Amino acid sequence: MSQVDLLRKAPIFESLNDLELEALAASLKERTFARGVVIFHKGSPGNSLYLIESGKVRISVLSDSGQEITLNTHGPQECFGELALLDGLPRSASAVSLERTTCRVLERGDFLTILETHPVMVRSILALLSGRVRHATAYAESLAFLDVQSRIAATLLALADRHGIQKHGIEIDLRLTQGDLASYVAATRESVNKALGTLRDQGLVSIDGQTVTVVDAQGLRDLIQY
User: Fold this and answer.
1) Average pLDDT for consecutive 10-residue bins of the chain (226 residues)?
2) Scanning 26, 142, 170, 175, which has the fewest C-beta atoms within 10 Å of its C-beta?
3) Angle formed by the axes of helices 148-163 and 178-185, nearest 10°
4) Which of the four CATH numbers 3.40.47.10, 1.10.10.10, 3.90.1010.10, 3.40.50.300 does domain 147-223 have?
């Protein structure tokens, strides 16, 4: 996929025409990260926006107790790092590649120049930020009102929606260890193991190594009650 095609498919740049996309593409830099590489740490300078061409990236923070909490997972044609790019403040979270990942990187100076000359992009940015806020609100509500099993159900549904492959059920195209799921739902591995076993025994999910498949999406939805 060309840089212009990648930009065209990214919602944040959808308001630009072909000539503008070509000009923007010329300012992008390519970065490739092996699996498990820290792309940036929380607190580091926020001077770049990353647009994923291939691969997946996890956004996370550490709790006061030192537990990793996953805030979001991004895949192809999605961007991350935009918040610090807008306000110039340090990164609010860390980003780690979940697999070999290739990104196109837009520096803050180039981004602000484009924003000044194409104010219509503000609508796309507001939509992106609104989506981030809604996601954060839903996550906070799940932590406050749902038990571990229900939080896992909500997380698996969200991951299936964004990273699912339709097979015999919806296979989540991510490696998901019990530790990974614990970081998504802010729980211990032991409680995640117990809850997953219950969901599997109820026929709601199937588990094959690090691959989780949603077998009964409605059954999972029925568990989520605020």
Assistant:
1) 84 79 87 96 91 95 86 92 82 94 91 79 81 84 86 93 91 90 91 94 94 94 81
2) 26
3) 100
4) 1.10.10.10
